[in-house]
Write a structure and sequence with these properties.
The complex is a heterodimer of chains A (357) and B (282). Chain A has 2 domains: 248 residues, Rossmann fold; 77 residues, 2-Layer Sandwich (Alpha-Beta Plaits), CATH 3.30.70. Chain A is 34% helix and 25% strand. Chain A contains 12 helices and 15 strands. Chain B contains 13 helices and no strands. The chains are: A alpha/beta (357), B mainly alpha (282).
Chain lengths: 357, 282
């Protein structure tokens, strides 16, 4: 691949595989301690497979979502593509350049947002941060100055450009992290949880910016997220990743079609018993999946029990009676059309954490 | 000159400059550093003065001159301390710098940028040297004013040359330390160990002849040993630069070896930790 050639697929991976050696943190005198059972089991399987033969093709100008729970392999995937990690097997091309052979060209083609707000220098001003990173991308000083001002204006932070980042809010720092990714105007953006920990206003602003970057500026965006709604609202296609494996790649509408014929009964409640999933599955008729999505009790966010499959009309009464017998405090019941979350649950059997974004 | 080569040179100089400016801004972001810079260089002399007073009854000792060539014990030790401060800043400043980037969460961004990481490290090293030099200059002024060290124009250039050569060798060691810290996640204790090796085995506070023969052999591998011998010969014994050619030549050879080993180890360790996945662990 030569510089300047256009490519059909901005990102293409071939059997990308990465595993990590499990570390034993036993300290200097660890040999004196008796090994716990779990550790003995770990020794039999000394590697964690973070990416297992990943094959994806992301078209130029596409907004591609990578959806999965924490620990599914999203960040490892992003780090392999951005040459921070070297895969064990397989390879990938970014903008037509091989991540193992043409690392400098790969790096120049990418804008990266990974790790959140702590990846900037808090003791420096926003302008100083951006000017510093511009120099790492070999941008001439005058061009860098103009670009920094343009990006600060785009992020609505021009008037605070000379303030240190330690005086910024989390959302403002995240905007600077995104501005950093755009400094050298790369054709491809790798965004790993860009709205993690942000309040709804900043999340919305950042999501709108991602949309604009992709649809108006033609950038290819890989958005790794665990927020269902974010993936559903923004992405042209979504890959569902779980335990290092891609289990489905489709537009959100098609993923939802996997559970289209089913109704979803959702019960919001407090204090469900730990075995509520198996308990309700035995009671509700034809329920394919019963899953508990944890709430945040200190904040008062209720737990949600999702019953996918069967007839919701029949299962409403059965579920409510059963939960009352267990003294569960029911807050509300809702019958809905399947969402991307339901498709995710059906495909992986796993569940994401409660959305706050 | 080829246009792309000139562009590359400009871009790489800018990386070094940006890194230097960044580090200087960090340094000056904490006002307490100015107290350290203004007060400590003066306080620093007091133990040497008292020690000199206790052991030799003042600044001069004929007994000491038999070993060191100069009776001025205090000036001898002070020059040792000044040069040793470059060891400290190199080991702690440059050696630990990559760990600090990892703690700050910025290491991933340095690694995923298309620039040559060597220029980032050069920028870090330069900023450490500049702050050390400010510190050393303050000490030198005190030396000239109070401890009979004379600085003539003829001695400035050879001393500067020796200090630059010392710093280059120390960068090589600091690079190795930075490389090891990528894997071990902890550079401080290793830096502390090396600091003590330099302090004990180089002639910082006593002439190299005071060491047992096996220790003198190790001492002869350390760049600080040759730098100290050369600087003292130039400043205290008033030798001409031709008298220290041997030390300068050896420093040059050791520097080349250490810098080559430093970059080699850093690149090797970067690749190794990228493979193992431990590169961005904290």
């Amino acid at each position: 691949m030569k510089h300047g050639e256009t490519v059909l697929y901005s990102i293409q991976t071939k059997d990308l595989t990465k595993s990590f050696k499990k570390k034993k943190h036993r300290g200097i005198f660890g040999f004196l301690k008796q090994k716990p059972k779990r550790e003995k089991a770990d020794e039999e399987k000394p590697f964690t497979v973070a990416l297992d033969h990943i094959n994806v093709k992301i078209r130029s100008g596409e907004l591609f979502g990578l959806l999965g729970p924490n620990g599914a392999g999203k960040t490892t995937f992003v780090k392999c593509l951005s040459t921070i990690l070297i895969p064990d097997k397989g390879t990938a091309t970014i903008n037509g350049f091989d991540i193992l052979e043409q690392t400098q060209m790969v790096r120049a083609s990418l804008g990266l947002v990974v790790g959140g707000e702590r990846t900037l220098y808090w003791k420096l001003t926003a302008k100083d941060n951006l000017m510093y990173f511009a120099s790492l991308y070999k941008m001439p000083r005058n061009a860098a100055k103009a670009r920094v001002e343009e990006l600060l204006s785009l992020m609505g932070l021009s008037d605070r450009a000379d303030e240190r980042l330690e005086d910024y809010s989390t959302g403002m720092r995240q905007k600077i992290a995104i501005a950093r990714a755009l400094l050298h105007n790369p054709p491809i953006l790798l965004l790993d949880e860009p709205t993690l920990g942000l309040d709804p206003t900043f999340s919305r602003q950042i999501r709108n910016q991602i949309k604009t970057l992709c649809h108006n500026e033609g950038k290819t965006v890989l958005l790794a997220t665990h927020y269902m709604k974010e993936a559903d609202d923004l992405c042209d296609r979504v890959a569902i990743i779980n335990d290092g494996k891609i289990v489905a790649v489709d537009p959100p509408s098609q993923l939802k079609a996997i559970v289209r014929e089913t109704e979803v009964l959702e019960v919001a409640c407090h204090n469900p018993p730990p075995d509520v999933e198996s308990y309700l599955k035995g009671i509700c008729r034809d329920a394919e999946i019963v899953t508990l999505i944890r709430g945040e009790e200190p904040k008062g966010t209720p737990f949600r029990i999702k019953i996918i499959g069967g007839t919701a009309e029949e299962n409403v009464e059965l579920a409510i009676d059963a939960l009352r017998r267990k003294n569960v405090q029911i807050i509300g019941v809702n019958v809905s059309m399947p969402t991307l979350e339901d498709a995710f649950i059906k495909l992986t059997g796993a569940k994401l954490t409660e959305e706050t974004g | 000159m080829n246009l792309s080569l000139s562009k590359d040179l400009t871009a790489n100089s800018l990386i070094v400059w940006s890194e230097l400016v960044k580090n200087m801004k960090f340094l000056t972001a904490y006002p307490v550093v100015f107290i350290f810079w203004t007060i400590f260089p003066i306080f620093w002399f007091i133990p040497f003065l008292l020690q000199g007073q206790a052991f030799v009854g003042g600044l001069q000792s004929p007994e000491f001159a038999k070993l060191a060539g100069t009776p001025n014990y205090v000036a001898f030790v002070i020059l040792g301390g000044i040069l040793n401060s470059y060891v400290l800043t190199s080991l702690y400043g440059v050696g630990e710098s990559m760990r600090r980037e990892a703690y700050q969460g910025t290491l991933d961004y340095l690694l995923s940028s298309p620039c040559n990481k060597a220029f980032i490290l050069i920028g870090k090293a330069l900023s450490e040297s500049i702050s050390s030099t400010f510190y050393a200059l303050t000490q030198l002024v005190v030396c000239v004013l109070f401890f009979g060290i004379e600085i003539t124009l003829g001695v400035v250039m050879p001393v500067l040359l020796v200090i630059i050569l010392l710093i280059l060798g120390l960068y090589g060691i600091a690079l190795m330390l930075a490389a090891i810290s990528l894997q071990s996640k902890q550079a401080h204790d290793l830096a502390h160990t090396l600091e003590n090796v330099f302090y004990v085995l180089s002639p910082v506070r006593y002439p190299v002849q005071s060491l047992p023969s096996w220790a003198q052999m190790i001492s002869s591998l350390l760049p600080l040993t040759y730098a100290l011998i050369a600087v003292r010969s130039l400043m205290l014994l008033r030798y001409d630069i031709t008298a220290v050619y041997y030390e300068i030549l050896l420093l040059l050879i050791i520097d080349m070896l250490l810098i080559f080993l430093g970059f080699y180890l850093f690149n090797w360790m970067e690749r190794r930790t990228k493979k193992s996945g431990s590169i961005s662990h904290y």
